[in-house]
Amino acid sequence: MTYEMFEVIGEIDDGLIDRCLKEKKAPRRKKTLIWIAAAACLCIAVLSAVVYGLIQGDVSSGDDPSSYLYRLPPTGGDSNSWFYEKFNLKSSTISGEWFDELGETVSDWCEKYDREKKSGRLDTTYPPLVKFIKECNITKETCVKVMEQMRINEEMTGLNPPIHLTEEEINVIYSGDIKQINKTFVSEYSIYANGKIFTPEWLVNHTAKDYRREGITYGQLKEKVDKYYTRLLEGTEEKDEFLSVFQNILQELSGQNR
Amino acid sequence: MLEDHVIVEYFWNRNEQAIRESSLKYGPLCYSIAYNILLNRQDSEECVNSTWMKAWNSIPPQRPNKLSAYFAKITRNLSLNKLKSRKAAKRGGTDVDIAVEELWECLPSSFDVEAEYQKMELLNLINQFLYMLPVQHCNIFIRRYFFVQPVKEIARQYQLKENHVSVILSRIRKELYLYLQKEYFYDV
Fold first, then answer.
1. pLDDT of residue A62
2. B41 lies in which domain range?
């Protein structure tokens, strides 16, 4: 009987829910480990914010994506939307531990990031986390401390895959070497070649000649296309068109690069 | 982030951007609701994805005014359904079970919430009651029984002791019981 009561509460007035969500929360005074859900929220918020800011192709290629012939096929929501990204998950996540360490600095930066994205002025040269570290002048010592806290929390909560940075990855970020950063943090759907990252959107809009010029090999493309097959929505015209473009490129590349 | 009415227009125009923008703006909220109920990352992500699909299938014809509440309700229902199916053989122990137990004392025995009209009656009375509460108490109640947030987390958000939050919730439950008893018997 009370379960039904619980369900009835699930139908309460939208205005009540909205008012509750808009309520200004009390400022945090101390660090605590009991923020798991909140941390996950913050992660996802920033993840979402950054992913969609990065779908406009690869700035390192110097192209204007608005002139591209092909658009990316539909992927069907959250999990597959990672398909569009340039950088991997861990370099695109500003987790709750950062908030615990730096407080409002983090939310202020996220708001700034969002504004830049909306205005089309977002510079996507660096992964969001690297951009955050640079722009907020985060010291390496602080970064190491936050990552250690992330590691502990991930172990406690069983978060998988882990998204804390390793010592090696932290060193790459603080080296400032964009080629190393690209190589280390390239997403699983994009290709790294000669210091640059080539997103699926770039790949589908260029020819085998461009691939050769950029040093992208048959093997590199083949590996990604196999992934695209499994991750894209079935039965859409866009998917068929998208994959057939790659088949042609692979055929052209196979003669020289294989 | 886009305004709600723009996102709703995307849904109405069958533009997939609707799902992306919804995910961007409300993904964290929906995830936290699902996670509070399911305590499982993968299941929670599935529920959030299902939320967008359900919204995609229901807008149009629906045109929600408050997308946050609309998505929150969908996610909550989906998560509860998933929890029910997951726990068909085994009950007890989750935060939902504890919240359900706590609500037991609110409901006068004369209510038969399985009857649809009484369910509607009960919903109306709960809405009225919640609007009469001080805003902070109302929000604490909603956080506990709508968003299924643990008491510890609510206490942290309001900078209160856990015990203080428990006392507030207990008092609200008693008041709700008295209110339902009074209003229901008065109406009948």
1. 46
2. 4-86
- Same domain (yes/no): B67, B115: no
| Contact criterion met (CB < 8 Å) for A35 and B32 | no
Q: What is the pLDDT of residue A41?
A: 46
Residues 104-143 of B with CB under 8 A from A: 104, 106-107, 113-114, 119, 122-123, 126-127, 130-131, 135-136, 138-139, 142-143
With a threshold of 0.85, tell me whether the complex ipTM lies above it.
no
B103 and B80 in one domain?
A: no
A161-219 confidence digits (pLDDT tens): 678 899 999 999 999 999 999 999 998 889 999 999 998 878 888 888 899 999 999 99
Do B121 and B77 reside in the same domain of the chain? no
Alpha carbons A99 and A84: distance in angstroms, whole number = 27
- C-alpha B24/C-alpha B58 separation (Å) is 19
Determine whether the interchain pair A44/B27 forms a contact, defined as Cβ–Cβ distance below 8 Å.
Answer: yes
Contact A197, A206 (CB under 8 A): no
Q: For residues A136 and A105, is the Cβ–Cβ distance under 8 A?
A: yes
Residue B121: which CATH number?
1.10.10.10
- Set of chain A residues whose Cβ sits within 8 Å of the Cβ of B41: 40, 158-160
Nearest CA in chain B to A84: B20
Question: Confidence class of residue B158 from pLDDT cuts 50, 70 and 90?
Answer: confident
Give residue A185's pLDDT. 93
* Residues B165, B99 share a domain: yes
- B10, B69: one domain: yes
Question: What is the identity of the amino acid at B68?
Answer: S
Q: What tens digit of pLDDT does each residue of B43-84 get?
A: 888 899 999 999 999 998 889 988 999 999 999 999 988 887
Both tokens assigned to A7 = 């369900």
B104 shares its domain with B175:
yes
Low-confidence ranges of chain A (pLDDT < 50): 1, 27-38, 41, 48-62, 74-81, 257-258
pTM to 2 decimal places: 0.46
Check whether residue B100 and residue B179 sit in a common domain: yes
B101 and B176: one domain?
Answer: yes
Tokens of B105: 């004392």
What is the Cα B36 distance to its own chain's centre?
11
**CA atoms within a 13 Å half-sphere pointing along the CA-CB vector of B108:** 18
- Choose the closest CB to A159 out of B23, B29, B41: B41
Boundary-marking domain end, from B31, B53, B86: B86
Nearest to A150 by CA among A94, A82, A92, A79: A94
Instruction: Select from A4, A79, A106, A119 the residue whose CB has the most chain B CBs within 10 Å, as the one to mutate to test that interface.
Output: A4
